[in-house]
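4.2 Preliminary Data

To establish feasibility before requesting continued support, the project team ran the inverse folding procedure on a target of 367 residues. The structure was first converted into the token representation described in Section 3, and no sequence information of any kind was made available to the design step. The complete token record follows.
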């Protein structure tokens, strides 16, 4: 009974559906004319391709020689050779046109090959950032004669003044080394040790890149009393046999001190002033120029500027040293030799070798 009712329902639904799709499929006819036109067009294309193939003249295969196993040269090879020659000609003609990019700045150049005092120029100082000072709120009024102007709240140092003071300092260093004096290069900031060591090697002096021990000059017989000393001749060659005499003599003191960062070493500069030792210092706009004897107004925060100043002063010391050795070859001694006497160091004679600094300057022992 249930199955019969389901069939009756499904039969009614099927009978109620429209019969339009059936009528549409039966009424559609095949487009015979379109098929015939496409066949005609394809036949025409095949006939045109066959006619082109028949009209084309076949190119013979080149003969390969048995001896060389190569084909004889044809006109296409000549064209390739001609085009290659034209390209070579164009390259040779236009080779010198345009610009060539090269590396101009090399950071290690100022350390390996520093410039000489005669090569000091304003572009060189400008490239090393020597003109940049500190903020206007940090300036020292004593530096007003070195300042060129103000830009964006920062003092600009005059490069003309910097070049003039640097040349004067070079003459001082050259004169001291020519007379056999001891030049001490001091730079205790991070990154300055290579410049300090290289400048000391060039000028034949001493270097200090660590903390300055207070009292090394004023109390040198206690602090530096055990430091090793050596005796050299006029050609800077060590002379053996004076070890015991050197132990009995007081410690040496420098004839000139070059300080690359005066703000951190003001104690050393004060000790030098008490003993009459001339000093050279890189003075920024926030430093006091009266601390040193020969100030060099420049940017002491720029490592490139410090390397430039130290390298130029080292070259100046090298030139003075060469002049002294040349005069020594001729038999001329530019300094007063020290006299060795067996006496114990006295507190009043600390850091003295053959007289104090003023006596050495008067006698021509140092510049």
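Position-by-position output of the design step:
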């Amino acid at each position: 009974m249930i199955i019969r009712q389901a069939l009756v329902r499904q039969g009614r639904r099927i009978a109620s559906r429209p019969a339009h799709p059936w009528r549409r499929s039966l009424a559609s006819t095949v487009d015979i004319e379109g098929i015939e036109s496409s066949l005609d067009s394809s036949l025409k294309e095949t006939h045109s391709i066959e006619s082109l193939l028949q009209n084309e003249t076949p190119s013979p295969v080149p003969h390969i020689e048995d001896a060389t196993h190569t084909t004889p040269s044809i006109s296409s090879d000549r064209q390739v050779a001609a085009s290659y020659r034209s390209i070579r000609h164009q390259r040779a003609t236009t080779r010198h046109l345009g610009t060539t990019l090269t590396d101009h700045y090399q950071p290690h150049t100022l350390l390996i090959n520093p410039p000489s005092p005669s090569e000091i120029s304003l572009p060189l100082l400008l490239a090393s950032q020597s003109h940049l000072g500190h903020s206007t709120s940090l300036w020292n009024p004593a530096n007003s004669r070195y300042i060129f102007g103000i830009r964006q709240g920062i003092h600009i140092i005059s490069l003309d003044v910097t070049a003039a003071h640097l040349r004067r300092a070079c003459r001082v260093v050259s004169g001291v080394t020519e007379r056999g004096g001891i030049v001490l290069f001091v730079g205790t900031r991070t990154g300055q040790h290579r410049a300090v060591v290289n400048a000391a090697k060039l000028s034949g002096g001493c270097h200090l890149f660590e903390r300055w021990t207070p009292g090394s000059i004023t109390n040198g017989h206690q602090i530096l009393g055990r430091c090793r000393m050596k005796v050299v001749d006029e050609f800077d060659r060590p002379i053996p046999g004076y070890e015991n005499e050197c132990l009995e003599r007081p410690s040496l003191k420098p004839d000139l001190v070059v300080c690359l960062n005066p703000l951190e070493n003001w104690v050393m500069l004060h000790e030098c002033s008490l003993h009459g030792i001339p000093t050279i210092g890189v003075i920024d706009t926030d430093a006091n120029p009266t601390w040193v004897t020969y100030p060099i107004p420049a940017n002491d925060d720029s490592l490139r500027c410090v390397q430039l100043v130290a390298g130029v002063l080292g070259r100046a010391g090298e030139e003075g040293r060469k002049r002294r050795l040349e005069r020594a070859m001729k038999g001329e001694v530019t300094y007063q030799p020290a006299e060795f006497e067996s006496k114990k160091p006295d507190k009043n004679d600390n850091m003295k070798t053959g007289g104090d600094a003023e006596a050495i300057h008067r006698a021509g022992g140092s510049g």
